[in-house]
Each structure stands twice: as C-alpha cells, then as structure tokens.
Specification:
Layout (H helix, E strand, L loop, with lengths): L2 H18 L3 H9 L1 E4 L1 H7 L7 E5 L2 H18 L13 E5 L16 E5 L21 H13 L20 E4 L3 E4 L3 E8 L2 H4 L11 E3 L5 E2 L2 H9 L10 H13 L6 H12 L6 H9 L7 H13 L7 H11 L1
Parallel strand pairs: 2-7
Antiparallel strand pairs: 1-2, 1-8, 3-4, 5-6, 6-7, 8-9
Length: 325
C-alpha cells in the first residue's frame, strides 16, 4: 500500500474514532495530541489486515483525560459489575504523581494507570460483550480481545452493521497499561510524549513509522520500510527486552525472520536485569501487553506475601510455568 493511501486510512480511522467521543474537552485534547504508530503501518505496507491501531498521546493531560473518560464508559456499560454491594466503584484511574497508591518499581513518576480495587470483578461482563482479564489466564484474554477486534471494521472502513445496537469504539478490554476499544483501537496509557520518546519503548524498527493528529501526515523511515518489506525483525533496543523475546513468536508465525544477532542483542539487555525481583519481572513480562503472564505474577506475589524475603528462583518459576502453559 502506498504512503498516500496509508495516510488516507489513518486520517479516516482517526476522525471516525474522534466522532465517537462524547465529551468535547476530551475530544479537543485527543484531536491535538494523538500519535498512531506501531505495527498497523507495517501491516498496511504489506497489504495485510490491521490487527489494531495503536494510539499514544503527546502529554500526560490527554492520557489522564482519555483514561478517565473510558473508565467512566466501562462503568456505564458494566451494568453495575464495577460496583460493590455498597455501590462503591471498583475501578479507577491512578495518577502516580498525586497518589499514595503503589505504581510499580520506584513508584514510577509521571505514570498513569488503571487500578482494580477488587479481584472479584475479573470476570465481569455485559451480555457477553465485555470482560476484564487483568487476573485471567493470558491466553484467555488474548483470544477474547482478538475475537472482538477482528469482528468489526476492515481496513477499507467497511460500514458496521449497527442493527445489533453495539456502540462503535466501546471499551472491551482494560488493564493497568492500556484500553482496547472495539473497532480495532488500542489506547496505550503507560507511555506518552513525542514520537521519539514513544519509540524508546519500541523494540523492532519496522514499528517506528508514525502518524500525528497535529500534522495529519504519515512519516515513513527508510530502515523501517526495509525491515517491513523484507519481513526481517531488526531489534533496536528496548526497556522491555524480555517482552521483545516473547513477541518474536507472533512474527515468526506470520512468516517473518530474525537472525541470531538480534537475539543476542536482547539477551545482552536482559542480562542487565534482576529478574529475581518480582516487581522487575512483572514490569518486563507485562510491557504494554497486560494479558501476558498475569496468572504467573499473581502466584509469585502470593508467595511473597507469605514470605517477605522470597525472590524468584528458577525451580519455583519453572514449576509454575509448566503448570500454567
């Protein structure tokens, strides 16, 4: 697909999503401060179906506004599944700069996250259309999200059959790090900033092309194009190398290749991490994909609650992994 066509698709998709936002103050922030990047542009270059459009924002104000807006939507659509018997809301947006709530390693400054107040809502659903998978097995969460995002909107912006009374761009999945909407929109909460800052967290170069709502133009990099068109994974470094290794699986299934040197790059970065620290392990496994290894981390935390001095050891980790997988 040509750059001109990709730009047209991204503009159309963005405007369609923008129209669905009911609050004008949120809509204005999104209109001014959005970046679309990641695998969707590479998929279009290869004339493949887009799995989802990854949405980032250039500032914290927009991240907070969007997170709060869609949490409110989750509560509205949840048919009281997000409230306890005393009508207290069980899901909230945390601003780590203004909260005493634990926000991960070193109480990460600047971070915005979604917090579940009770594990009891993990299976909440509305007429089968919504589920919250924070504490569910990872494959269950992945399969559910895939089924939802694939049932709506093709790349050619084919009209949705609204006779089923399903709202477009409704939230269907939420985690600490991201919110997935129907119609193939994934909103990433964990990272924000200009595109160069966002791409510091990206692992493979083919994902670094981008589009901004400010310029309304797609930007294609030569090395990213070469990688995408040859379907060769080139690792450029990431803060989440463990997640990067795991991510290679999905690319290999799609016919991509990767040489041993790229794995060595990832291994070198992993060697600098203390994965025996549960917080660091959790941070690495989740990355921006909340469904990964949730059950594993829950079990590790349960063990640590019983023994405050415990760390991750290989024998225990291996036994849990073999049971889960």
């Amino acid at each position: 697909m040509k750059a001109k066509t990709i730009n047209k698709v991204l503009n159309s998709k963005f405007q369609d999503w923008l129209k669905s936002i009911k609050k004008e103050e949120v809509k204005k922030l999104v209109e001014a401060n959005t970046i679309i990047t990641g695998g969707c542009i590479a998929s279009m270059l290869l004339k493949e179906e887009v799995n989802d459009f990854d949405i980032y924002f250039t500032n914290k104000e927009t991240v907070l506004a969007v997170a709060r807006y869609y949490v409110d939507e989750l509560i509205r659509l949840g048919n009281n599944k997000f409230k306890d018997s005393n009508n207290n809301v069980l899901i909230e947006v945390i601003d780590c700069d203004n909260s005493s709530h634990s926000c991960g390693i070193g109480h990460q400054t600047g971070r915005v996250k979604i917090h579940i107040k009770s594990a009891g809502i993990a299976g909440a659903q509305t007429n089968g259309d919504y589920q919250y998978f924070e504490s569910r097995p990872p494959e269950e969460g992945e399969d559910y999200v895939e089924s939802i995002v694939n049932e709506v909107t093709k790349l050619d912006n084919k009209k949705i059959d609204d006779t089923k009374s399903k709202e477009k761009y409704r939230p269907v999945f939420a985690s600490a790090n991201a919110i997935t909407l129907s119609d193939k929109i994934q909103i990433v909460l964990r990272f924000y900033g200009e595109q160069d800052k966002i791409h510091q967290h990206y692992d493979y170069i083919h994902c670094t092309n981008y589009w901004t709502s400010a310029d309304k133009e797609v930007v294609l990099h030569a090395k990213a194009l070469e990688s995408a068109l040859s379907k060769e994974l080139i690792y450029v470094g990431s803060k989440y190398p463990v997640c990067s290794v795991i991510r290679t699986r999905k690319f290999l299934k799609r016919g991509w290749t990767i040489n041993a040197g790229q794995y060595l790059k990832m291994c070198f970065q992993i060697s600098k991490l203390d994965l025996s620290n549960i917080e660091i392990l959790e941070d690495q496994l989740i990355g921006v994909d909340a469904a990964y290894f949730g059950q594993l981390i829950d079990l590790m935390k349960e063990r640590q609650e019983k023994d405050k001095d415990s760390k991750v050891d290989y024998g225990y980790l291996a036994s849990i992994i073999d049971k889960i997988f």
